[in-house]
Write a structure and sequence with these properties.
This protein is an alpha+beta fold and 352 residues long. It is built from 13 helices and 11 strands. The longest helix is centred in the first third of the chain and has 20 residues. The protein is globular, with a radius of gyration of 19 Å. The structure holds 2-oxoglutaric acid (AKG). The site of 2-oxoglutaric acid has 12 residues, from loops.
Length: 352
């Protein structure tokens, strides 16, 4: 599918032969399934261990008397009502302090972020997450891990904990200037993953660039109508897209779009691999701040940069320890050094 947005994005990227080869396999349905099977076959015992741990965790949550949280795969999302999941208030409180620390740096970060990376960037990095272990704890509660393990089929890995800051876009910005995650896309790490989003600033309407998405079944219908999931730019974190608004709106009714508006503290679990989504189209003079935690399969198909977390705070064999142990551990600060220390390369990686 020819799309000027895709072509521009692709030509901006200088990627090597190996990456192009990977993407040419990964962007076809059959190739993607092949990569999934190959990833699973590479770690059979780990997969078994994580499946068993997921069953034990489910039994533990039921025994505790809590009502297990479940995400309907047809929808690919679930709102979290106040009090439904422990840790949301802690996230808001801790992130409010972290935002206070970041405030004096915001203009410098905006000025330093090149071109399209002005869309959104992270306030935390590995060091600031390590200083706030409560953020990680809130992402690996028994209740949340049980919910995501059920959805992904085994105890998953927490890969990202971020505070995404989206500044107002320049006055002249309109659809032709939108790029990356401001356009409808699927995330590309796998065919399923879950992100927890918690609003850290009130998001009232279009002025605040709300996260906007189509439920998973509607997304599938729309991308089928558009000729299957199109190939995202080689080397991109997107498996498919970006699609223009006009393309998406041709096949989805206005009432099918879901928007994450609401007051600070509103929380959402969203499968960003199965739902077409966009956000951060923030109008000039406004801003949007969102907490984002990303949980993915251990055997994911396409790894993107991830945080370092201190797994050893949890005992060996616990689901929490498993959730903080990726297949390919990197040292602290490898992908995400402290963004407030003026390391501009970090800002360029964005918040997603
Ligand atoms: O709300 C946004 O800025 C979009 C976020 C996004 O695309 C993602 O986290 O995958």
């Amino acid at each position: 599918m020819k799309n000027p947005v895709i072509e521009n994005a692709a030509s901006e990227r200088q990627v090597g032969l190996k990456t192009r080869l990977h993407f040419s396999i990964y962007s076809s349905r059959a190739g993607f399934r092949l990569l999934q099977a190959q990833r699973r076959a590479a770690h059979p015992f780990e997969l078994l261990r994580r499946k068993r741990a997921a069953s034990a965790l489910a039994a533990k949550v039921v025994a505790s008397g809590a009502k297990p949280l479940r995400i309907d795969p047809k929808l690919g999302y679930r709102w979290i009502e106040p009090g439904e999941l422990p840790g949301i208030d802690t996230i808001v409180e801790s992130c409010t302090e972290a935002i206070g620390e970041a405030r004096p740096h915001v203009q410098r970060l905006i000025d330093a972020a090149p071109g399209r990376f002005r869309i959104a960037f992270d306030f935390l990095g590995d060091d600031r997450v390590a200083d706030r272990p409560e953020l990680v704890d809130s992402m690996v509660t028994d209740e949340l891990l049980d919910c995501v393990s059920d959805y992904l089929g085994a105890v998953p890995v927490l890969r990202r904990v971020a505070i995404g800051y989206s500044p107002g876009q320049p006055e002249e910005a309109h659809e032709e200037e939108w790029g990356g995650s401001q356009l409808f896309h699927y995330d590309g790490e796998d065919d399923r993953q879950i992100k927890l989003f918690v609003l850290l600033s009130d998001v009232e309407d279009e002025r605040h660039g709300p996260l906007t998405f189509l439920p998973a079944d509607v997304s599938a219908r729309v991308s089928d109508a558009l000729g299957g999931k199109p190939e995202g730019p080689a080397g991109s974190y997107m498996r498919a897209g970006p699609y223009t608004d006009a393309e998406v709106r041709k096949h989805a009714a206005p009432e099918e779009f879901v928007q994450m508006t609401g007051k600070r503290g509103r929380a959402l679990l969203l499968d960003t691999c199965a739902t077409l989504h966009q956000g951060s189209r923030v109008k000039a003079g406004h801003e949007r701040i969102v907490f984002m935690g990303a949980v993915q399969r251990y055997h994911l198909v396409h790894a993107t940069p991830y945080n370092w977390f201190d797994a050893e705070r949890f005992a060996a064999g616990t689901p929490q320890r498993l959730a903080l142990t990726p297949p390919d551990p990197r040292s602290r600060g490898f992908f995400f050094p402290d963004p407030l220390r003026g390391d501009h390369a970090t800002n360029a990686r964005g918040a997603g």
